[in-house]
């Protein structure tokens, strides 16, 4: 069994990224073959600062390693360093219906958000993502809920290629966390947690203790005092309960019993303390890695070489089936 997943080098990682994807990666690397990559080619499909891109890649690499990725137990590299990703994207693009791309939810959302930046790369984003996944003959793709549609398209493309040209690809399956696939903003519980949308509603993976406490205490809750999980009627406290459950390892029902008869203030104080203690090892490891940039570069270079061996083999099969070699 092989696992593949990637994350864009845009913005600082927050607990939504961690709970929705990275936490799964850390668990999966212990029991299966994992390929993880920093998808810098995806990052250039929306507005970005070219002069900051390399620093962002480095920061994200350090963040992943600080959060628990083990380069001895997984392949970890930068997407653009393995040229087979872009070559396979072009080849898969020749069998991907235009209508499928135009129906993608993320394309519609990002087109509205960045009206001045609607480009062919943004439209073809899901083909590149399919190439990322299929290049490694992936079995499982741990992603957040918002990427599920893209993985389904990758399955469709794999099926169509195999039927048209002959068997090469596996049809990958999505792995979603049972709870926490989508962590919501602390300020706007109806929206996904995002630093760009609202920094106050986002807990960074490396936020200092005082920042964490301030954001949790100011988190939007709901009418009434009951600490009860009900996403429709009580989205604010339900989101906080989800975060508490995932970091503590305690079930929602257990937490409801624990805080029965107590108000939001007591619950928030306890959650802030839990997050401060849980994130402390990440902060400590990140500070250490920031002093070891050469070591981080070596990890990515070794990962690139290991990834390329698999990628070259797959692409050779693809080209042969398509009559290109």
Automatic annotation (TrEMBL):
Q: Which organism is this protein's natural source?
A: Candidatus Nealsonbacteria bacterium CG23_combo_of_CG06-09_8_20_14_all_39_25
State the family it belongs to. Answer: Belongs to the class-I aminoacyl-tRNA synthetase family.
Q: Which GO terms describe its biological process?
A: tryptophanyl-tRNA aminoacylation
Keyword set for this entry? Aminoacyl-tRNA synthetase, ATP-binding, Cytoplasm, Ligase, Nucleotide-binding, Protein biosynthesis
Q: Subunit composition?
A: Homodimer.
- What PANTHER family does this protein's entry cite? TRYPTOPHAN--TRNA LIGASE, MITOCHONDRIAL (PTHR43766)
Q: What name does UniProt use for this protein? A: Tryptophan--tRNA ligase
Entry's Pfam families? tRNA-synt_1b (PF00579)
Question: Gene3D superfamilies this protein is in?
Answer: HUPs, Tyrosyl-Transfer RNA Synthetase
Q: Which residues are ATP-binding?
A: 8-10, 16-17, 144-146, 183
Query: Motif 'HIGH' region: where?
Result: 9-17
Summary of the function given for this chain in its UniProt record: Catalyzes the attachment of tryptophan to tRNA(Trp).
Q: Which residues bind L-tryptophan?
A: 132
Example GO CC term: the record gives: cytosol
Name the reaction it catalyses. tRNA(Trp) + L-tryptophan + ATP = L-tryptophyl-tRNA(Trp) + AMP + diphosphate + H(+)
Q: What is its main location?
A: cytoplasm
**Localization annotation:** Cytoplasm
GO MF terms listed in the record are:
ATP binding; tryptophan-tRNA ligase activity
Please give the SUPFAM superfamilies that the UniProt record associates with this protein: Nucleotidylyl transferase
């Amino acid at each position: 069994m092989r696992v593949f997943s990637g994350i864009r080098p845009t913005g600082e990682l927050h607990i939504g990224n961690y709970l929705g994807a990275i936490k799964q990666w850390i668990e999966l690397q212990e029991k299966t073959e994992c390929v993880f990559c920093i998808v810098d080619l995806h990052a250039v499909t929306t507005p970005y600062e070219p002069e900051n891109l390399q620093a962002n890649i480095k920061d994200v690499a350090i963040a992943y390693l600080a959060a628990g990725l083990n380069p001895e137990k997984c392949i970890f590299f930068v997407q653009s360093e393995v040229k087979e990703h872009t070559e396979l994207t072009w080849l898969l693009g020749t069998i991907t219906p235009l209508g499928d791309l135009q129906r993608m939810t993320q394309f519609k959302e990002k087109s509205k958000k960045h009206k001045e930046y609607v480009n062919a790369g943004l439209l073809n984003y899901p083909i590149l993502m399919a190439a990322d996944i299929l290049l490694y003959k992936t079995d499982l793709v741990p992603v957040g809920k918002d990427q599920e549609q893209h993985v389904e398209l990758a399955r469709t493309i794999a099926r169509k290629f195999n039927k048209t040209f002959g068997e090469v690809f596996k049809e990958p399956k999505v792995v979603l966390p049972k709870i926490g696939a989508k962590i919501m903003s602390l300020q706007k519980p109806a929206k996904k947690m995002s630093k760009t949308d609202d920094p106050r509603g986002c807990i960074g993976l490396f936020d200092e203790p005082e920042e964490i406490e301030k954001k949790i205490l100011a988190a939007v809750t709901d009418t009434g005092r009951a600490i009860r999980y009900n996403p429709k009627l009580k989205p604010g406290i339900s989101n906080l309960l989800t975060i508490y459950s995932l970091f503590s390892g305690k079930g929602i029902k257990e937490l409801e019993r624990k805080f029965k008869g107590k108000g939001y203030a007591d619950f928030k104080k306890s959650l802030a303390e839990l997050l401060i203690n849980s994130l402390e090892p990440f902060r400590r490891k990140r500070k250490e890695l920031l002093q070891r940039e050469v070591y981080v570069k070596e990890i990515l270079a070794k990962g690139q070489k290991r990834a390329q061996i698999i990628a070259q083999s797959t692409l050779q099969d693809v080209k042969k089936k398509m009559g290109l070699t």
